[in-house]
Amino acid sequence: MISRLPHNGAFSAMRSRWFGSLAAPAKEPRSIPFFEADKDMPQGVASTLHEGAGELPASQQSILMPEAVHEVARLPPASRQSVLMAEADQHMPQGVAENYRFWGQKRTVFVKTSKGCRFTDVDGKEFVDFRLGYGPIILGYRDERVDRVVCEQIMERGTLSGFSSGLDSEVARQIKGLCPQIEKIRFANSGTEAVMGALRTARGFTKRNRIATVEGSFHGLYDEMMWRTDLDNWDYDGKTEPHIIPAGGGIPPVSRDLMDIIVLNDFEKLEDLFKVRGDSLAAVILEPIIGNAGSISASQEWLQRLRDLCTENGTMLVIDEVKSGFRVAKGGAQELYGIYGDLTTYAKAIGNGYPVACFGGRRDVMDAIGSHQGGVVHGGTYSANMIAVSAAHATLKVLAETDANKTIDRVGQQLMDMLGRVFEEAGVENHFAGPPAMFGMHFGPNVPTNYRHWRTTRSGLYQCLDFAEVDLLFVVAGFVVVIVVIYVLFILHYVHCA
């Protein structure tokens, strides 16, 4: 969620660490509509802060053809982003480096500067960013405690050598200190790679091939993990099961052959899985808190039963903490539950925005990796490069030695309280799921217990953009009130970034 707040002098003068200081605009900001919303921006509703003239940065000029640079210079500030998008569209599919950055031709954002919890786009509009890079920026943009360490390390040792540095084992030690279930780890470059490494290791250790996932979870962008239940074309009558379909094109049907999908918090389907697949199941992988489905969560009892069944059947329990790791608690979701996996994947918050990930777990399982006969192959040119491990080292040090996680929890709880009051006063039934550091909002009489239930509800503010026009108007009006309340709260409490 990204929000742009209305500009005024009092807000400019406020210097909270949550927002950072407001840069002086190049010209007196003019008032523009409090909210701009359209269905061309499916991943969020934005409210306008202000526009400044500003200059197109050299880094953006360098990616344009010379004639395009001149064209941008002649245009009013509000048009610069659209010109950049038109130019980018000539070189990349949809004009973006990866699918999830595309918010439509009119609303795709090009960033000029960022600091703390805010960024400025190339048109001079300033935003408060509640998403922070899909989750990695746990300490805020350009945190000097991390960036300084990274710069020092690469100036001394370079970015990559292909050899060990000693810092990789130090980061492993830090992770083990926060996460008691981790005995050994290996590094990766993304959450997708970490999941691939963990599942290959589970297969190598168990000598089995089948993998089960939980409906609605997200485990990266490789073929086996990109199968989902087709709930859009399911009638929810409870008598039939939805079809399993690929999440997009280019995913071969054969990648489905060794996959099973179970339903969160459904004991009957969980028992059936192990009755049918128990002796061939290498691993069950899940997010205990499903970040892409409004943070609906596994119940304590269901997760414990899954843990017990995995142990009884020699199946590896792989807990995906790419989103929740080091965020919902220093030891992640497993610390909250007190239930631990055989293997765990981490990414996102571990490096405060630098590309670093890892997977790890039981010593005997991880020791299946190696160059010995029949050993699991794991590697990567950029794994544990100096940029990655120095960022992880600095970030984990801050998280371990400060009350950053308590700050995140406190702010999350304040947001939940405010949002709850707004909707209650409007007579809108609402509930929250997940811990304060990673909460989701749901409309209706109950918190959904699984993905199927979630899909039958109006289960997230982003989702409302796809509903009828009256719902869209409700969301916009509701957010106006929410932003005003947030604005007042931040002034009163001077909330800090972690």
TrEMBL record:
SUPFAM superfamilies: PLP-dependent transferases (SSF53383). InterPro entries: Aminotrans_3, Aminotrans_3_PPA_site, PyrdxlP-dep_Trfase, PyrdxlP-dep_Trfase_major, PyrdxlP-dep_Trfase_small. The chain crosses the membrane at residues 472-495. Keywords: Membrane, Pyridoxal phosphate, Transmembrane, Transmembrane helix. CDD domains: OAT_like. It comes from the Eukaryota. The keyword Transmembrane applies. Gene3D superfamilies: Aspartate Aminotransferase, domain 1, Type I PLP-dependent aspartate aminotransferase-like (Major domain). Its cofactor is pyridoxal 5'-phosphate. GO terms for molecular function: pyridoxal phosphate binding; transaminase activity. Belongs to the class-III pyridoxal-phosphate-dependent aminotransferase family. This is Glutamate-1-semialdehyde 2,1-aminomutase.
